[in-house]
Amino acid sequence: MKKIQMVDLQGQYQKIKDVVDTSIQEVLNSSAYINGPYVKEFQADLEKYLNVKHVIPCANGTDALQIAMMGLGLQPGDEVITVDFTFAATVEVIGLLKLTPILVDVELDTYNIDIEALKKAITPKTKAIVPVHLFGQCANMEAILTIAKEHNLFVIEDNAQAIGADYTFTDGTKKKAGTMGHVGTTSFFPSKNLGCYGDGGAIFTNDDELAHTLRGMVNHGMYKRYYHDVVGVNSRLDSVQAAVLKTKLPLLDNYCEARRKAASYYSNSFANNSSIVTPVISDFTTHVFHQYTFRVTNGKRNELHKHLLDNGIPNAIYYPVPLHAQKAYQDDRYNEEDFKITNQLIDEVISLPMHTELDEEQLVFITTTVSEFLK
Ligand SMILES: *Cc1c(COP(=O)(O)O)cnc(C)c1O
């Protein structure tokens, strides 16, 4: 059996090596290392794929969130609501901009933002909501957008983990994850569903004016060369990464399908195990399984983690510490009672190997090892 990896970037690269290498070589030959043609071509391809008016490429997913918040004009002291259960980048940029993060609990079944908790957290100072489409499925955007409209709030979708997922509204309208709020952001970190071979990110919006603001902000606040109208940052997607992304974008749907296939294999194998709660997919969204994360309900999560490692099966706890309990983000206002679900998930979740190259032999070995341990 091939050695099992949490993410098999090498295996995926080998299958597309020729096209990727050619595109990288073209960039090297062109010497247009920054803002070369591939950046614009990838931008246009992604706009088409997402059916969104504007894609603004930038250096990484964390910058994308930060620049989105800057572009919306959020000011120090403005409250921004996001989830307690996510990667820290989401709350980090809120803090960095001296906005006030308001962390709320998530749902036990989808691990995404709890709508009742969101409603409760709104105050006169609230300016924005940052739903995170965690592990590859969309948060309840219809409810979030309704609440946002009622309270005049911006919605910034952190779509680092769900690029390619489809959302269906009650009236039948379909939209791509990241294109439903005022602005959406993503990351092209190598292990993300659409990953490059370094850092990369992008911001999406259908708002022409906001897109214009953001395009200047990623480039030192310049709208005309050497004229700085606003304080910006230096956050660019480089041409080599754009070349990689342009070659990989046409494969994204196949990649998502391969992940879904591995996920259904896992879920089918665990269906009758009373110690396992497999991922629950909401009706309004597809799941692109950035992670396959399930709950262990018999208290043996940590033992399973170790047992799998001992058997050569990489696995991870995403996430081991809730954000409200992190040193950098502690706040006297927080009350443990408000984070019941996150606190429970921190103890119960475990993520199995998930990537596009898992084969049947590996899936059989992983599922048998898990099932025999959690009999
Ligand atoms: C990966 C990730 C980010 C940050 O992306 P980088 O490109 O690593 O900066 C932000 N939010 C979430 C939910 C992520 O998973």
Describe it.
The chain has 12 helices and 14 strands. It has 375 residues and is an alpha/beta fold. It folds into 2 domains: 9-249, Type I PLP-dependent aspartate aminotransferase-like (Major domain) (Aspartate Aminotransferase, domain 2), CATH 3.40.640; 251-373, Aspartate Aminotransferase, domain 1. The model has no long low-confidence stretch (mean pLDDT 97). Bound molecules: pyridoxal-5'-phosphate. The site of pyridoxal-5'-phosphate (PLP) has 15 residues, from helix 3 and helix 4.
Following the backbone from N to C, one meets helices and strands in this order, namely HHEHEHEHEHEEEEEHEEHHEEHHEH
Number of domains: 2
Shape from CA axes? globular
User: What's the gyration radius in Å?
Assistant: 21 Å
* Helix proportion range: 25-40%
User: What share of the residues does DSSP label as strand, in percent?
Assistant: 15-25%
Pairing-aware structural class of the strands and helices?
alpha/beta
Helix tally? 12
The name of the CATH architecture of the largest domain is: 3-Layer(aba) Sandwich
CATH class of the largest domain: Alpha Beta
Give the overall pLDDT as a whole number: 97
In CATH, the topology of the largest domain is named: Aspartate Aminotransferase, domain 2
Cα-to-Cα separation, first versus last residue? 24 Å
Main beta sheet, described?
A: 7 strands, mixed
Order of the strands making up the biggest sheet: 1-9-8-5-4-2-3
List low-pLDDT spans: none
Quick one: how many beta strands?
Answer: 14
CATH superfamily of the largest domain: Type I PLP-dependent aspartate aminotransferase-like (Major domain)
Bound molecules: pyridoxal-5'-phosphate
